[in-house]
Amino acid sequence: MIKAVIVEDSRLARNELKELLKEHQDITLVGEAENVDDGLELIQKEQPELLFLDINMPEKDGFELLEMLDEVPITVFTTAFDEYAIKSFEYNALDYLLKPISEERFAGAIDKVKKQLEQNPEVSDREKLTEQSQIFIKDGESCWLVKIGDISHFEIVGNYTRVFFRGERPLLYKSLNQIEEKLPEASFFRVNRQQIVNTNYIGNVVPWFNGKLKLTMQNGEEIEVSRRQSYLFKDKMSF
Fold it and tell me: What are the structural domains, with CATH classification, of the chain?
């Protein structure tokens, strides 16, 4: 069963979605919310695999909800305003449904959800972040919904953390310690006080001064591993 939640300020629109969901018995609606704050609480409590999210809501919009989440479920945007369509795909939403939603269009979105879950079964495991988990990043007017496995490394910048992925370098308003607690230990390693790297993106490792190591990432960036962490890194990587 796929757990789903609806965050939508219109009661009529929520009822419409619930009627459409009745034709899909393998999706269980575990809750609904009419605003962002209630939606955040609901998602944190239920940990759904699927989120039906309205964009244009009073006080806070759907994009702001994504920004509040540590991990973002598979997201299908629902809205009456097609001007948001292009922006929603910048957020890597799985699909975009324009109200009123037809049964055929809705069924197509559900098929996409099921295919993504079949391809990435880890998405269904909400206990901790995995390579397939998604986080939301907003830096100025730019926004991304990024898979953990696509991130090469993290770096402290004042009160922010810079996130490196696919040539992008936006700032995330979370501490490196907060991020480290949620990352999959199998692929991420704290190399020093300032940086965490995804070991899958390391291109080369060489001995450095005073027992330290120097990493060259696949994008060419060089990162120094502290002496203490170098011992741990060698053990982790079986050097």
Answer: 2-124 (3.40.50.2300), 148-236 (2.40.50.1020)
